[in-house]
Amino acid sequence: MSLPIVTATRYVLPLREGGSLPGVVEGNDLGTYVIKFHGAGQGPKALVAEVVVGELFRRLGLRVPELKLIQLDPAIGKSEPDFEIQELLIRSAGLNLAVDLLPGSFGYDGSAGNPGDEAMARILWLDAFVANVDRSWRNTNLLVWHKNLWLIDHGAALYFHHSWMSAEKFATLAYDADDHVFSIAAPGVPAVADELAAAITPELLTEVIGLVPDEWLGEGDRERYLGHLLARLEHRSAWQPGGAS
């Protein structure tokens, strides 16, 4: 199994959000996507986290915009008048990440798209599992589209891979649930934790890690991601919001 691959046909505009400078592009399948660049400051590891976390969450029943791989021809960048963007497009020639654009969506602020107590607890537990530090009220990384909640932007998760923190350290690394947009759901986490933990099997993790292109990984990285995540799952009592189940 692999992610679909499309080719970028036109760069539309930059989003200028965060340090990675994602943009909107059109693909040869007539789709419109948010493109995230392997040549951005965060590098391909942010894209690895996007794929592993996004596809894991999707398989566990959460709404995540469809992810695809997208080929970028450097010629597209040569016609871009903004030098910073032109440089990024040329530097990111090759395979990048495309996230399906949700037209008309808007950022979650609590006034619409409330997922309910159980879903909030599930999202909180899963963010704690993957050490996603980027889901606060300052930046929820949640969109409301057709009255449903969608989860986006998981590049800040799995931050152990930036220095390859040991699996033993990551396994028990505390999670600051107080800063999470759904911190109010912490008391309900133990009620959903056993089900979620049981669903995250070695086979499932191997599947989602297997969706990452080889060129974004170093030698042995797939095994390291699997080992770190399995170790964290095994020691969930150390980081689980709301206390042990």
From TrEMBL:
GO terms for molecular function: transaminase activity. Residues 16-222 form the HipA-like kinase domain. Keywords: Aminotransferase, Transferase. Pfam families: HipA_2 (PF20613). InterPro entries: HipA_2. It comes from the Bacteria. This is Aminotransferase class I and II.
